[in-house]
TrEMBL record:
GO terms for cellular component: plasma membrane. The keyword Transmembrane helix applies. The chain crosses the membrane at residues 24-46, 58-76, 88-113. Keywords: Membrane, Transmembrane, Transmembrane helix. This is DUF805 domain-containing protein. Coiled coil: none annotated. It comes from Periweissella cryptocerci. It comes from the Bacteria. The keyword Membrane applies.
Amino acid sequence: MIEATKLFWTHVFDFQTRSTRSDFWWAALGNIILSIIVSFVAGLIFGNSTAGSAAYSIIYGIVGFLYLIATISIVVRRLHDINRSGGWWWIQLIPIVGGIILLVFELTATVEVGNRYPKMER
């Protein structure tokens, strides 16, 4: 889980390679745990003060934006792992059905034979 979370954050702008199913799901779990810890620590540091709230909002906005880019990136890499174009990421915009289709893609096993996308360097 730690290795997958590191890969998630060190490959934020990698939209060319592949991410395995286990890397994808371990990174998801690692980021949930990481966000709980960071939120707790931020609450202790910034407290309820107005200045603390402003600083927290700025930091949260920057980290949130990076997290959004990294999430799109890992979904695209996961799609590449099943030999699908990253353009399939947009299917989730179709209400209800799109999210289910994307989830099925994320749960699909790796396609090795004939996969046109390179493996990620660890």
